[in-house]
Amino acid sequence: MLPMPDAAADVTTDLPELNPIIHGKLRLALLSLLSTVEEAEFTWLRAKTGSTDGNLGAQLLKLEEAGYIAMEKKFVLRKPQTLYRMTETGRKALTDYVHALKQLLGSAINS
Questions:
Q1: What does the longest C-alpha to C-alpha distance in the chain come to?
Q2: Which of 46, 95, 45 is closest to 68 using CA atoms?
Q3: 91: domain range?
């Protein structure tokens, strides 16, 4: 096995960290969807992502625990409704994630 050149070793230390909470495919999709609306119902998010109730609920909980989204439960015509909205912390985290991803991909996204 050939040793890595020193220049390549230096590059790896400059790689940005990608937020592991956002990096999950479904969580990234949820934040992306929520960034475009004021609030969204659980059923709308489920339809847009094609996720199961259980998986969607688990991923939304992770985002809520991180402070990236807020949840509100209410009743409309005696039917329960669960609404989600992105918080300012979530908007900043998503912006930082996109910036880090662009930095990581560098010239690959400009081709």
A1: 69
A2: 95
A3: 21-103
Cα radius of gyration (the chain): 18
* 15 inside domain: no
Tally of domains within the chain: 1
68 burial class (0-12, 13-18, 19+ CB within 10 angstroms)? buried
CATH code for the domain in which residue 53 is found: 1.10.10.10
Q: How far, in Å, CA of 66 to CA of 26, rounded?
A: 15
Residue 109 exposed, middle or buried by CB count within 10 Å (0-12, 13-18, 19+): exposed
pLDDT one-digit tens code per residue, 8-45: 444 555 788 899 999 999 999 999 999 999 999 999 99
Euclidean distance between CA atoms 38 and 29, whole angstroms: 16
**Residues 71/83, Cβ–Cβ less than 8 Å:** yes
